[in-house]
Amino acid sequence: xxxxxxxxxxxxxxxxxxxxxxxxxxxxxxxxxxxxxxxxxxxxxxxxxxxxxxxxxxxxxxxxxxxxxxxxxxxxxxxxxxxxxxxxxxxxxxxxxxxxxxxxxxxxxxxxxxxxxxxxxxxxxxxxxxxxxxxxxxxxxxxxxxxxxxxxxxxxxxxxxxxxxxxxxxxxxxxxxxxxxxxxxxxxxxxxxxxxxxxxxxxxxxxxxxxxxxxxxxxxxxxxxxxxxxxxxxxxxxx
Amino acid sequence: xxxxxxxxxxxxxxxxxxxxxxxxxxxxxxxxxxxxxxxxxxxxxxxxxxxxxxxxxxxxxxxxxxxxxxxxxxxxxxxxxxxxxxxxxxxxxxxxxxxxxxxxxxxxxxxxxxxxxxxxxxxxxxxxxxxxxxxxxxxxxxxxxxxxxxxxxxxxxxxxxxxxxxxxxxxxxxxxxxxxxxxxxxxxxxxxxxxxxxxxxxxxxxxxxxxxxxxxxxxxxxxxxxxxxxxxxxxxxxx
Lengths: 239, 239
Fold this sequence. Notes:
Alpha/beta knot; alpha/beta; homodimer; CATH 3.30.1330.30; 9 helices; elongated; 6-stranded parallel β-sheet; 2 domains; 4-stranded mixed β-sheet
């Protein structure tokens, strides 16, 4: 039987500070929970509203629909809620490209960017401390399980960039077209905040200012950060 | 003064059938309304909750905050609501690339795709009849005004493709890598439904099956339709 304290714990994990405190995060939905189990992440507890929704697992607890609703962050909980231990953060390497996010705030954008890193085989994603938390429920929903294959590290981005010897790429309106740019084997690609782009402090550390050429009317809004990331990772990998 | 009938009309325009019947659509927010006015679309009526929020326009009506709330589709209306005549659909041309959508259902995806077409100078976007309506409030919000520069045409996509002499490109898991593909000057790029991809009937009309190479784990979910569109339009334009 699920206890009141367990329900309270699960609900508390909707807030970043309790996720960090307990080292736990919540995933909902049979598909995503299944993917995270398959990826080998260690579950703390799984809750289901019918027996046998998830097989081959011991720490499973059948709860009533109303108990699940109390724990869920969704208006229509979908039958399976998993509480997982956060994976250990791995050391980044310098032999390949890394993506770094400077204050990306939208959970959907972060989820899409994690999924893109996974697609393009980018193993490490560095996030500034003011980037949205990757264990936010909306981010997890958008990553479609890619979170288990990309090492997401939150750190002081300015400090991290000051210490690297890798070339640092950033996108600017007046940058050189990325089509004619020689792409090195390894580097850091910085993607900026949705409204303000790359911050002033970090701009000064960018060694290669690039641009994605625009072909339409000059009054067009700049590309969304997730679509720009898609284009740039494709450019890196196509070589 | 705003009449009850006017409020009723504006509210009815939240439904596609009334938008089609009246040839009108609604845009909210000072920035987007301003963009649509600047692009030269003809307004039917503008409602504001304070005088002088939008300048230089005659058909402007100052309403109370509660009247605006009645008309708005937003939980927090932001002061300006414009009702516009839908632009006339223009004839598509065959001298450049066209994007065609086969049952794209998510308003955010359609909005992002319209914005991408604008960025990459794609003038015509063909939508199957079961693609989400481009005058849906959520689509308009995501297009950031690009809707005024891209000609969006809803038509029987199968019939349209049967009649074209242009090469028809579509993305498939087993397609040829787009990096080595010769890209013609003009063609049609088909993007499929979020869950099911390109439908069987339309698949048979595709003349060039392409793929965006994957560099990560083979268990990765396929790319989201909007990020795939970003990568493919970039491939077309970079040549």
